[in-house]
Automatic annotation (TrEMBL):
InterPro entries: KH_dom-like_a/b (IPR015946), RbfA (IPR000238), RbfA_dom_sf (IPR023799). HAMAP family: RbfA. Belongs to the RbfA family. Residues 116-145 are annotated as: Disordered. It comes from Hymenobacter yonginensis. This is Ribosome-binding factor A. Keywords: Cytoplasm, Ribosome biogenesis. It is found in: Cytoplasm. One of several proteins that assist in the late maturation steps of the functional core of the 30S ribosomal subunit. Associates with free 30S ribosomal subunits (but not with 30S subunits that are part of 70S ribosomes or polysomes). Required for efficient processing of 16S rRNA. May interact with the 5'-terminal helix region of 16S rRNA. Monomer. Binds 30S ribosomal subunits, but not 50S ribosomal subunits or 70S ribosomes. Pfam families: RBFA (PF02033). It comes from the Bacteria.
Length: 145
């Protein structure tokens, strides 16, 4: 569980890194727009794990984007330092990861869409629908009430 300070720093880093990628350094990432999905900061605020998302990217271009960001990591950290120098004393080390949760959710949606689950047939008994169902026996010594 993150402390309030970690949450505040994570939020600040997420906003400022998005601005760095979109406004300060778009020339380093031509045709690519890496989005920041999540930032997790270590308890000592020394390391920030940055998760990049590629929502509108082609299949397989996420790894290329991640490699390009890692190559320019020093420049990204310097640009971030210029933006947050008034809020933080030390700029955390940035470690970039690819966030594949959107792709995973799309795949799970596809898998669930292909399942063929038959709908339960309605009961045609003479009992009204308001009847309380019988409680299942959970233990051997349960008595009928």
């Amino acid at each position: 569980m993150e402390s309030k300070r970690q949450q505040k720093v994570s939020s600040l880093l997420q906003q400022e890194l998005a601005a760095v990628f979109q406004r300060d350094l778009p020339h380093l990432f031509p045709g690519l727009a890496p989005g920041i999905s999540t930032v997790r900061v270590s308890p000592d605020l020394g390391v920030a794990r940055v998760y990049l998302s590629q929502l509108l990217a082609r299949e397989g271009s996420g790894e290329a984007t991640l490699e390009l960001v890692r190559e320019n990591q020093k420049i990204v950290r310097q640009a971030l330092a210029k933006r947050i120098r008034q809020q933080l004393r030390i700029v955390p080390d940035l470690v970039f990861f690819l966030d594949d949760s959107a792709a995973y959710a799309a795949k799970m949606d596809q898998v669930l869409g292909t399942l063929n689950i038959p709908a339960p047939e309605p009961e045609t008994d003479d009992q009204p629908d308001t009847a309380v169902p019988k409680r299942p026996k959970l233990f051997a010594d349960d008595d009928d009430e």
